Amino acid sequence: MKYSERVAIAKKFVDKNKLFTVLALIAVCYLGGNFLFSKVNPDSDAEPIQEEVVETAEKNSLQWRFYWSDLVVLAVAGGFCTVMIIRERKKERDNL
User: Fold this and answer.
1) Terminus-to-terminus CA distance in the chain, angstroms?
2) How far apart are CA 20 and CA 26, in angstroms?
3) Contact call for residues 21 and 14 (beta carbons, < 8 A)
4) Residue 31, exposed/middle/buried by CB under 10 A (0-12, 13-18, 19+)?
5) CA 67-68-73 angle, 5° bins
6) What is the C-alpha to C-alpha distance for residues 25 and 3, in angstroms, rounded to an integer?
7) Spatial distance between the Cα atoms of 22 and 94, rounded to a whole number of angstroms
8) Spatial CA neighbour of 86 closest among 27, 94, 52
């Protein structure tokens, strides 16, 4: 499928589903704004006491643990993606 064909399909989808497109744009704007403005610290004037910083750092330190289920999920997802990539490549070779 060529780029122009994909663009035509996308334009048809947007024309048919205007409500979905508007809702998707609103959601993207909301998430982007939330991400950008969540980084702003309104209390930047007040410096915390050093003891409080150490205590909160100890409480907020995250420990990463390896679970065998993580390896299984990674292997299954990686295998699925590999199979799909191989299928797409085979399909493209057949189209040539």
Assistant:
1) 11
2) 10
3) yes
4) exposed
5) 100
6) 23
7) 38
8) 94
Determine the number of helices (DSSP H) and then strands (DSSP E) in the chain: 4, 0
Q: Does the model's pTM come out above 0.90? A: no
Under DSSP, is residue 53 helix (H, G, I), strand (E, B) or coil? Answer: helix
Per-residue pLDDT at 69:
87
Residue 40, token pair as written in the block: 């702003």
pLDDT tens sequence across 49-85: 555 665 665 666 667 777 888 889 999 999 999 999 9
Six token digits for residue 69 = 């289920």
Whether 26 shows a pLDDT value over 90: the answer reads yes
